Amino acid sequence: MKTYQFPTLEDRAAVETAIRVFLWTQRADTRMQMLRTARAVLDRYNISKLKFCNFIVETTAPGWSTIRGKQKIDGHQCPNCQADIYEQPGNVRILSIQEGRSHDEVTYGCRCGTIFNKAENV
Ligand SMILES: [Zn+2]
Hints:
By secondary structure, the chain is α+β, with helices and mostly antiparallel strands. Helices cover 28% and strands 29% of the residues.
């Protein structure tokens, strides 16, 4: 029987904290810290994907990771605090973009800590 090892609560909390710190500070260094923390946890368990309540972290290029939202929105506001996703400078940052044939799936992260995605026409 194969034994699977799952990330500890502590490791999962480290990823969630790194994401919240970036969303709150919205700085280049905290963005890098967020992506590296997520990747370090994935590597520790030798997994390529880790699911959380509202998002998924996945491995990308060596040493890096990406964050994808699970909650889809249609409008242009954060579903939690109604911040406008297109306002510049605003409270919402792009976390990742998945390119598709007819549209891109863009994951946004809001300063209030909410992560969501939206289909954007190419
Ligand atoms: Zn918000």
